[in-house]
Amino acid sequence: MANLAILDFGFGGALALENALLATGAEVARLEHGLTAHAYDALVLTGYGRFGEAMRTLEGVGMFSALWNFYEEVRKPILGISLGMHMLASGSEESPGQPGLNILPGTARSMPSRIGKPYTGWHRMELDLDDPLFEGIDPLVEWHFTQDYMILSSNLQKSLAGEYTLGGLPTAGALRRGSVWGLQCDPVKSGEAGQQLLNNFVALVDSLIPATSSGEG
Prior knowledge:
Blueprint: E1 3-7, H1 14-22, E2 27-31, E3 42-45, H2 51-60, H3 63-74, E4 78-81, H4 83-88, E5 91-92, E6 107-110, E7 119-124, E8 126-127, E9 142-147, E10 149-150, E11 160-166, E12 169-177, E13 180-183, H5 191-208
Parallel strand pairs: 1-2, 1-3, 3-4, 4-13, 5-6
Antiparallel strand pairs: 6-10, 7-9, 8-11, 11-12, 12-13
């Protein structure tokens, strides 16, 4: 069974996500530094709060380099949720001059004033049904969103796995680059569909774990 690590750097969401991942049957740990990240089969990055502060905290505890190593060298799956998706992307207007990890495309933009911040709501996403993350999920289901910033989906078609409309604007709900995914929605708060998504992620991680063979010597 997959052995996952949630990068817990004090920005919330880790405990509820840990419980939801444990429900899949996976082994789950919460990491407060990046020193042993390479020992896990997948990394999950979640949280809420200010982008710049989160990125500086990530760098300070060695997780910035751990995530890049996971992406470039180890090539194991990464899942970023909410603020975690923005951190995996290029940056955020909330903190000009502070780059993101730049693994996923796009920059988080401030939402129009007509939407109001913080925004909480339910939306149906146009899903890439060929993406293993959405296998077996009803395409008409609604997902739970809580956000202050949005990544517009224009010019992101090659990486777009899920799209929804917020304030009349086409918005990235899910992004993918190789074995790295970002979710703007919160799967923990999205009911059965969110749990199925996490089940799918763990199944995908399981499928990528090298099989061990044993025999008589």
